[in-house]
Amino acid sequence: MAPAASRSPLLVVLLLAVALVLLVSAVECYSGHHDVARSSAVARRSGLGSGQYVRHRRTGAVPHRYVLAESRNSTRNSNHSSPAGSNATSSGEEQQGRHHRGHRHRVRNWIIGFVVGSLTGVISGLAMSVLFRLALNCLRGLYRSKSGTVIFTPKLIKRAEHLAFLRKDDGLASVAVIGRGGCGEVYKAQLPPEAEGEEPRFIAIKKIKNRAGDGRGAQNNLSDEESRLLDKWTRQIQSEIRTVGHIRHRNLLPLAAHVPGTDCHYLVYEFMKNGSLHNALKPNAGGEVLPWPARLRIAVGIAAGLEYLHVSQRPQIIHRDLKPSNILLDDDMEARIADFGLARAIPDSNTHMTTSNVAGTLGYIAPEYHQTLKFTAKCDVYSFGVILAVLGTGKEPTDPFFTQVDDVGIIMWLRRVIKDGNPAAQAELIDDAIAGAGYEEQILLVLRIAVFCTADDPKERPTAKDVRCMLSQIKS
Ligand SMILES: Nc1ncnc2c1ncn2[C@@H]1O[C@H](COP(=O)(O)OP(=O)(O)OP(=O)(O)O)[C@@H](O)[C@H]1O
Ligand SMILES: [Mg+2]
């Protein structure tokens, strides 16, 4: 595919050149044909045999503009007794011939000018695109080391050598594991200080094992076909990951670097010291809980990040795994959506939906996905609705509470109580940890939005932009 694509500009140029040659020769041919036809008529009238004229032309000894003059002279010489009107006719024909020739030349020049102009345009366009690509590659190459490490956030990862430890076999042996997800372990590491007295900088490293490779040995045992498939898969991942690496928004956690390993990929992110929303919703060591205004701000931030992925990215990015553990909190407690684009880059990262932690993850997946097996932007809106429900009620979809109530899960429970309109029952919806602080009205409004987002019919759900607008109108 790639070689064909790189050959195609050359092919276009060649085709255009051939077209130009054909066109010019066609014009020549047409004008030659016209000359012969017209001059035979002149010759016939002037008494010169057309054969004689054609002979003159074929010998090529005399330029053909003189041939006509010669024919006129010879006509004159041979026909002294011809009437004066004959001379007038022949000078009129000469004038007509000159006019016709001038017109023909103009047409030919126009055609040649047009073709040459188009050709020049195409060639300079191609040259510009090649130069642009070269410049872009040079720029990207500045942050790409020989080992294949690509740095997307040079402000955080100043040199590729700072990540060189990942290429060692035991590189992560002494590094702390901070979490484990569908793709594998997440580690926390410190970057070497650039200057003395500099604040320590931490990164989170996500290790993603290759689909077929379970270690070097496994990769060595692969057949040629399997190795080719693995190479193709690795290249696909790299190109997707590099697309994701260039996405920036204040509510998204950007990829800081990508380090391809022998049997895995390392995705490097800035370490978020406030952890995930999943952890923040639990009371901290001092028994404090996340207050409502902070929760509302997080909700608005998630909606803004989601809107950016759905609306500003082309092709749009559907997260597919929105849940509190994929919402990280920065130093200002601002929401940062993590793992966006990973589902597209590493389709297998969702396989954990069928493993033991299925309930936790499945609680966030839109019901239509089970029938269609197709993720749409409205599936993300559904998951976001569940997050809103969790923020207001303080209960995860897996909460044991839902085994005690008649409704099947958090969404059915919420829907029924909101629809019934009983104020006492609605007050019961609110998370005990934040109830009584004067935000009940706001919390109930957010829970109503959660009900909209989790409508059974995806078409009835609002878009991420609608939700962001609705949430922004709730003043805290
Ligand atoms: N950049 C980060 N900063 C701080 N903690 C992080 C960071 N990235 C991940 N974590 C922690 O690591 C945990 C595991 O993350 P991981 O993304 O692998 O799994 P997950 O989010 O639970 O599930 P999924 O595989 O669906 O994303 C997270 O819950 C979070 O607590
Ligand atoms: Mg995650």
TrEMBL record:
Keyword set, alphabetical order: Glycoprotein, Leucine-rich repeat, Membrane, Receptor, Repeat, Signal, Transmembrane, Transmembrane helix
Annotated membrane topology: Single-pass membrane protein
UniProt-recorded Gene Ontology molecular function terms: ATP binding; protein kinase activity
Bilayer-spanning residue ranges: 110-136
A Pfam family this chain is assigned to: Pkinase
A Gene Ontology cellular-component term: membrane
Biased composition (Polar residues): 83-94
Domain Protein kinase span(s) in chain numbering: 172-476
InterPro entries noted in UniProt: LRR_receptor-like_kinase (IPR051564), Prot_kinase_dom (IPR000719), Ser/Thr_kinase_AS (IPR008271)
Annotated compartments: Membrane
Annotated stretches, region: Disordered: 70-103
Signal peptide stretch: 1-26
Main location: membrane
Highest taxon, organism lineage: Eukaryota
UniProt biased composition (Low complexity): 71-82
UniProt-recorded name of the protein: Protein kinase domain-containing protein
Organism per entry: Zizania palustris (Northern wild rice)
Phylogenetic placement of the source organism: Eukaryota, Viridiplantae, Streptophyta, Embryophyta, Tracheophyta
